[in-house]
Amino acid sequence: MPPVLRVENLTKTFIRKSLFGKPSVTKAVDDVSLRLEEGRVLVIAGESGSGKSTIAKLILGALDPDTGNIYLDGNLMTRDQKSRRILQRSCQMVHQDPYDSINPRMKVRGIVSEALEIHHIGNTRAREMRVSQALRDVKLDPDDMIHKYPHMLSGGQRQRVVLARALAVKPRIIIADEPVSMLDVSIRAEMLELMRELQQKHGISFIYITHDLATARHFGTDMAILYRGAIVEKGEISGVLDHPQHPYTQALIGAISDPDPANRFREKALVDWETV
Ligand SMILES: Nc1ncnc2c1ncn2[C@@H]1O[C@H](COP(=O)(O)OP(=O)(O)OP(=O)(O)O)[C@@H](O)[C@H]1O
Ligand SMILES: [Mg+2]
Predict the structure, then answer these.
(1) Range of weakest confidence among 36-45, 48-57, 135-144, 188-197
(2) Residue 10: what pLDDT?
(3) Torsion sign, CA atoms 28, 78, 95, 35
């Protein structure tokens, strides 16, 4: 069985033109290869700016890579419309900030059924049933929710609505980019527990993007560590976290588990590693 998703040698460079002087060139993603097996949760971890969200955008076809290939169920996704549609339907995204991806003027019913309409899935009746089911799946009461606007919801409820919208199209893969970092600490675990339950119930494979190694261990099965666009280490999550081989991973873990808050500052991991 081929993995549900495989990316091979993805590279993406951004060039920012400047009015004066040379344009700045950022290699945001540098020769990245990853496999996501069916029903697994692949964590992509790394410092801010290491290229995590860019990888997500490349997988979703929101950006074109300079080089590299994406395979879904072993099939090469070319950059034509048909492949793009298949990818956009099979992979759904949950962003860090729900307001990035939902229209504040739409009611919950419209938000959750949006992707169903885009992909022409079902008739009106079938869509309504899918919307209700998706809301129940994320433990929201459809009758109470469908007529509400996003601003009438709590942060946790809003993120559940985003998750319901992702679920409604019955995706193979959900890419969750820091899905809980803007939520209250008290409800983060609840949200992750819910994602795990859905992953098991529906057999959805997840890419979980985070720099929080504690929630990564809780939710993930596999892990890739990203540093300046390149993967420095990958493998089963317990192997990577308990026996990190690469000095950058060691610094990242060391910085986070250090009892002295001054040393816990994330950027310190970077500095330490660069001076190794
Ligand atoms: N559209 C863009 N134009 C120019 N540079 C970009 C663009 N998008 C991302 N970059 C740059 O690419 C690099 C990787 O950015 P990316 O957003 O993928 O990082 P990230 O790991 O998701 O960071 P964070 O943890 O802060 O979300 C950064 O240096 C960023 O400034
Ligand atoms: Mg990001």
Answers:
(1) 188-197
(2) 97
(3) negative
CA dihedral 154, 160, 161, 163 (to 10 degrees): 150
Residue of 10, 16, 54, 63 with the most ligand 1 atoms within 8 Å of its CB, for mutation: 54
**Ligand number nearest to the C-alpha of 57:** 1
Nearest listed ligand to the Cα of residue 44? 1
Q: How far is the CA of 176 from the centre of ligand 2 (A)?
A: 11
Q: Which helix (H) or strand (E) holds 196?
A: helix 185-202
pLDDT band at 276 (very low <50, low <70, confident <90, very high): very low
Phi, psi of 205 (to 5 degrees): -90, 145
Q: Does 242 have pLDDT greater than 90?
A: yes
| The Cα angle at residue 56 between residues 231 and 131, in degrees rounded to 5 | 145
What are the b/e assignments for 76-92, b being 16+ CB within 10 Å? Answer: ebeeeeebeeebbbbbb
List the residue whose alpha carbon is closest to atom 27 of ligand 1: 48
- Provide the b/e sequence for 184-207 (b: ≥16 CB within 10 Å): eeebbeebbebbeebbeeeebbbb
Ligand 2: centre distance to CA 127 (Å):
32
Between CA 271 and CA 181 the distance in angstroms is 24
Q: Is 21 left (phi over 0), alpha (psi -120 to 50) or beta?
A: left
For residue 55, the ligand 1 atom closest to its alpha carbon is 18
Domains within the chain, CATH numbers bracketed: 5-243 (3.40.50.300), 244-276 (no CATH)
Cα-to-centroid distance, 48 and ligand 1 (Å): 8
